[in-house]
Amino acid sequence: MRLPHFLRNVILTALLALAALLLWSALQHPESTLEIRATRAGVSSPDGFYVWHHLDANGIPFKSITPQGNGLIIRFDSSAQSDAAREVLNRTLPQGYIIAQQEEDNAALSLLSRLRHDRHRLG
Fold it and tell me: Domain map of the chain by residue range?
């Protein structure tokens, strides 16, 4: 059984609108987050003031530095700021810390993030 031409167009238009809404939603929230945590037991989390000092000295703006569990969460306005901060902190923090991009809870951002990282798999 074939769908009438009108119904096919309505379904296609609805799917395109949904995809556009998902993309728009993801682009409206460009906030980026880094997480710093110790690589092994016995190493304490880095001092927030120490991190603040090095980011400020390198002219990298950030929204907040918050302790969470055994680490720190640093929020930025953009991924460019986050990338610059990661470079600075990799140079300045002593050995024993992991600096990682924290995954967002937003499903749209998660999907876009996976597509960006798996770009080589797309055909």
Answer: 1-29, 32-102
